[in-house]
Amino acid sequence: MVEPILKVSGLVKRFGGLTATDNLSLDVRPGEIHALIGPNGAGKSTLIGQLVGEITPDAGSVMFLGHDVTRASVPARVKLGLGRSFQIVQLLDEETALANVALAVQAHAGHSFRFWRRADADERLLAPARALLDQVDFPPARRAARVADMSAGERKVLELAMVLAGGPRLLLLDEPMAGLGAGESIRMTDTLRALKGGPAMLLVEHDMEAVFALADRITVLVYGRAIATGTAEEIRANPAVQEAYLAEEGA
Amino acid sequence: MLQALGLQAGYGPSQVLFDVNLSIAEGQVATLLGRNGMGKTTTVRAIMGLNPARGGTLTFRGEDIAALPPERVAQRGIGLVPEGRMVFPTLTVRENLVATAADRFRRASPWTLPRIFALFPRLGERQNQLARTLSGGEQQMLAIGRALMTNPWLLILDEATEGLAPVIRAEIWATLAALKDEGLAILVIDKNLSALKRLADRHHVLEKGRTVWAGNSLELERDAETVRGWMGV
Amino acid sequence: MALLAEQLLNGLQLGVMLFLLAAGLTLVFGIMGVINLAHGSLYMVGAFGAAVTAQVTGSWWLALLGGLLAAGVTGLLMELVVLRRLYARDHLDQVLATFGLILFFNQLMVLLFGRQPRFVALPAWFTGSVEIIPGVPYPSYRLLIIAVGLAVAAGLYVLIQRTRVGMLVRAGATHREMVRALGVDIRLLYTLVFGLGALLAGLAGIMAGPVFNVQIGMGEQILIQTFVVVVIGGIGSVRGALFGALLVGVVDTLLRGFVPGLLRGLLDASQADALGAALSSMGVYVLMALVLLIKPRGIFPAHA
Amino acid sequence: MREKIALALLFAAAVALPLIMRALDLPGGTGVATSILCLAFAASSLNLILGHGGMISFGHAAYYGIGAYTVGILWEHFRQQEPIFGLIPGTDQLLITLPAAMLTAGLAAAVIGALSLRTSGVQFIMITLAFAQMLFFLFVGLKAYGGDDGMTIRRRNAVPGLDLRDVDQLYWLVLGLLCAWLFLQWRIVGSRFGRVLEGIRQNERRMRAIGISPYPYKLAAFVIAGMGAGAAGALMANYMRFVSPDIMSWQKSGEIMVVVILGGIGTLLGPVLGAIALQGLEFFLGGITEHWAIILGPILVLVVLFGRGGIMALIRRLLGVRHG
Amino acid sequence: QGAPIKIGMITTLSGPGGYLGQDIRDAFQLAVEQEQGKLGGTNVQVLVEDDGLRPGQGKSIAERFLRNERIKLMTGVVFSNVLGTVAPDVLDADGIYVSPNAAPSGFAGRECHRNYYTMAWQNDTLHETAGVLANTLGYKRMFILAPNYQAGRDALTGFKRKFGGEVVQEVYTRLDQTDYAAELAQIRAARPDAVFQFHPGGLGIGFLRQYAQAGLLSSVPQCVPAPSMDSTTLAAVGEAAEGLNLTSHWNTDFQNPASQAFVAAFRAKYNRTPTYYAQQGYDTALAIGAALRQTRGSIDPAAFRTAMLKADFQSTRGKFAFGPNQHPVQDWYALKVEKVNGALALVTKSKILENEGDSYAAQCRL
Ligand SMILES: Nc1ncnc2c1ncn2[C@@H]1O[C@H](COP(=O)(O)OP(=O)(O)OP(=O)(O)O)[C@@H](O)[C@H]1O
Ligand SMILES: Nc1ncnc2c1ncn2[C@@H]1O[C@H](COP(=O)(O)OP(=O)(O)OP(=O)(O)O)[C@@H](O)[C@H]1O
Ligand SMILES: [Mg+2]
Ligand SMILES: [Mg+2]
User: Fold this and answer.
1) Which of C122, D314, E47, E95 is placed for a possible disulfide with E72 were both Cys, Cβ 3.0 to 4.6 Å?
2) What is the tally of structural domains in chain D?
3) What's the CATH superfamily of A6-249?
4) Rounded to the nearest 10 degrees, how much is the dihedral formed by the CA atoms of D70, D76, D80, D83?
5) Quick check: B99 contacting C, CB < 8 Å?
6) Which residue owns the Cα nearest ligand 2 atom 25?
7) Which residues of chain C have pLDDT under 70?
């Protein structure tokens, strides 16, 4: 039994009368893709928020790589090896694709209190940035385009490259397929699959094709509680999950 | 009901639509298909007057709407569920639904709060919550509800099932089928081809701002390979 | 004791006056989200409109009408010509443009009415005073100010929180295009609401005229204070603006009324006076800094 | 290339300005130009945080004023031969007063920034204003240094090898220092630190998600900007030979901000052009009519409505049109 | 005849204080016009610029006047802080400055200058005379207030210097204050015999109106210096001012021919009653004219000084002479606001001081 890299125990988050995360325990093992599914408003994004450090839980703990990070700041967790993508992509809209990734590389390279040397022609930043864009198959022709002029698909991929720049041990992906067309979804699935064996992933997604294609394990969240955890087959066969969430696709 | 011929539009100096042709008949469901960035949303914005048409014609129920400002277009009976939801974050769920509600054409059975809450019980539970704090899917439901509350002739759904759980998605398709039976015309943009095929009467494929293919579901089945190519699948 | 009570009353009254000054700003800045530095100009235009009408007609009621008309029309023009093009722009663009408007309006008033301060008489029914606290006659006009201020607060609250107009204005502040795409003519709506804000600024100018003074540049004197009130209270909240105004009014009055006296017990007279005066000048700003450090979004943030 | 030539021409013109002024028989112009450069200096420093860091500080005149007061106070104690608090001797040496001004302004910016940066948005605007107002009233109350009436600095600071009583020399000194500052700022903006600052302006959430906590970077930029404003204030005090709280009023903060926006936010030369335009117009129109404000006001409005991005954008558009 | 002599006028025309500079300028130009573009027989050209009450702006204008226009004779500044930047530049360039209004203590005492003349008074004298008036009126317990800035603090010091009774309380208001309810409550609670207050221009209007509205005017009279109650203030305050006591060196109802002619001409030209700021502007023009007449149009500082110090002109205040520090030595009067033919006016009551100089003259070594 390998040590999980992320261990969530007894996590609780309340919004007024609503318990969005209800005594939730969960773990993610090294290298696995762990999908998190559940009805809308089940508390998936709220959980991601707590893992990332944007939302402070009311109770429970989050252990990451053996550190208790329950109260750590976002950047502190990122420095430890956490990477996340957003449900709505967050990028630097006025910059080029390359500049975005280069900045992420820079952030990973240590502190940025360097005031003199020009950064925009610094190969120590640009070379790794290009490599990352290659890794996610970002078309070279578009690397000098400004983010503001990019399509939804390009942005999603670019964001992934930025996340990877941090050399994360765990990726938190909140609806990476959202906003992608059918074709782009397939390519994104391939890209994620290609990363397998690298960072572990906690994947929130409503696109079941992608989930079943990628996930090693799946946890189903309903009303803030994990009602089932298991392999794709187990979950697909689970009648409770069928009723609460899946339905016959396209019925 | 809605017809676009040779529609052109863009953003500032850059032109995005070059030749979009589109037609939806009374009570019909039509789709706009195409890869990311091909101009589907821009077409919708051009129809709504948000990015005014720079060329071509645009008629709705026999009236030229190409030069109308958005509010006039909407007042003529087009309801929009925009890409990215765009719910009003600082309003409560109930306020979001009420603020722009209208029954301009005196429907026999207009959409009301109770009907919306029956369709999306989740919204009923969250009536007084600020829309900003809703989950992604809940916001999507709200955007759909909000458009229905304007009781339009034509409903435009731009990726309206994005981020919805499969059960809810299935429910939306069922609702759209029911609405179609009530005589509502619908223009859908969605990546869920199989559901669209069953629901829609007519499909349009966009490629780099041009309508490159149009036809009914049967024809779509027939030309599946070509269309798949355009869709990048 | 009577003095303390009187000072508290003074503080509350000042607070309501501040609210009246800030009411229009709450609407335009807090809810529509526009930084309009020229808001003070509308206040000035209202005050001058009333003063000039009063001088010509001698009637306070006509002056009221004249002031409101002047401020309202100026506001509408301001919106139609300049501000409606700036809603979607950066706050900084709004700063620069409305800074230009201040220059313009101040000089315009000089050209139209000269540099001399103006005079507005009290309305005939409110020249007397009332003894609320025994032995202390309280000007009845100030009671009128309190009444008007509270009425404006209530009206504004209902408008913003309870009517569709309020909802639409709040909606338009975030997703302007979307409101249009749902069939609402937000441009017209915004013009009207901005006009209402101008009317409120004008009303404040009219009410303040007989108490403060009507002169060129009077708008800038109150501008910062009103922004302070709105921010302390919580941007976009009518309740917050009222509460912020009362807080500022009371704190300011008490500081002025009692701090120098208290300090004199501790320090020698001239030092105490200098320090006391400096403290009371800074008071409002210290208050704002403290509030923002403790509650960064103000006391009653609109969208908590 | 074209830009480089334009820049070189501009610089040459700036250096030759005192001579040109004398040739035109307008020797007073050099003094006016000096004050414009000081304002441009202050505005550039604001531009670092406003244009590149997205921090809308409405209290920047505070640091400008502190710089000026540092020169004034040091001079006052030098004149009276009486150390400050019995410890720090006064001085009239610019090589000491200028760094001292930057240091005090930087310190003030560190304290105020550390507190203010806990807020954001409009609240940040207002809290920076609040602190500036506190300082303003503090100096109004400081009887020992002239209070509201301000203090006169009878003689400009001394610099070995220069005679600042000569307006031309003072002008060249200010020009030189401004250029040095602009060069420094240009390097900073292009450096790793500058990239982070840009990133923070565009999307703070994204920066956190790549592991950067914005606070220390914002604070550092805030302090650097404060130091720049302090230097500008020190020079202004030398030019004016006078300081009063007026120099740190909210109207001054507003003016500095207007200069930045007018010139072009986030551009290197924008604030300089903005200062020239604003003061120049004021002067020019003031020469034509006492009602100059009624012309200047609408001009500013027009710049916003039709010249998106200020003067720099206008220039770029003009050059761009010629290119294509 | 040659080219006209240029006179530079830097004054405050914008903002709330704008009407003060306007009065100075208008009266000055009236004097020039009355002499068909001349002063003392010499052609003059008056260049007016607005300092906007900003010292820096004043400085820039002075610089331009001195260096571009080569103007050697300047006047006009209303406010002390602007004077603080303008005067040193003018004087250092060996120019002449004649102040129509602002007169801080520095230039009257240690830093007095051969080329610097004041035509109004020294600031402190205003308040000292009010102290004298309070003594004359028999007030024993005074409540005194002024805004918290240098001139305000000087005002209270000046008042106390000559007032013989007890100051029951002194209060500093704020320059940016618009509401005075808190101070009025304190006055009511202190029950003084009278109130001394220094609130120039617009500040005074607000203060007096609120004072009257609070019903204090009937129970606690006021005794103030001229800047707290000029004729513009009076027009803006209205009824509320009735009964107010003040001191001044001049008033519209002075009987000497120069004053009567001035008031009539000013009213005819500008259709408003001149304030004492206007009178000072006018006297400034007359004084410069008298000097120019003697020097035959030369403004060489030494010659000009000899001529100027003679003060050989018909001052609107009757008697006028310069003291050793080149500040006025003049008479002071008690005024009262009264109804004359149904309209409020400042009415001169009695002379309270004769040939009064100022307390700083002794420190001046010229
Ligand atoms: N700040 C808040 N205040 C009140 N309720 C909130 C707040 N934030 C989230 N909620 C509620 O908590 C529940 C969980 O939201 P969350 O965003 O985690 O759902 P989710 O599982 O990500 O849903 P989806 O699949 O639709 O994105 C929702 O019902 C939401 O309305
Ligand atoms: N605001 C904008 N300014 C400039 N160009 C834009 C803007 N929005 C979109 N575009 C460009 O217009 C083109 C069409 O975009 P549009 O959003 O219409 O595509 P779409 O078919 O809806 O794609 P998706 O499936 O990603 O929503 C894209 O190339 C995009 O880069
Ligand atoms: Mg979610
Ligand atoms: Mg789209």
Assistant:
1) E95
2) 1
3) P-loop containing nucleotide triphosphate hydrolases (3.40.50.300)
4) -10
5) yes
6) B36
7) 1, 303-304
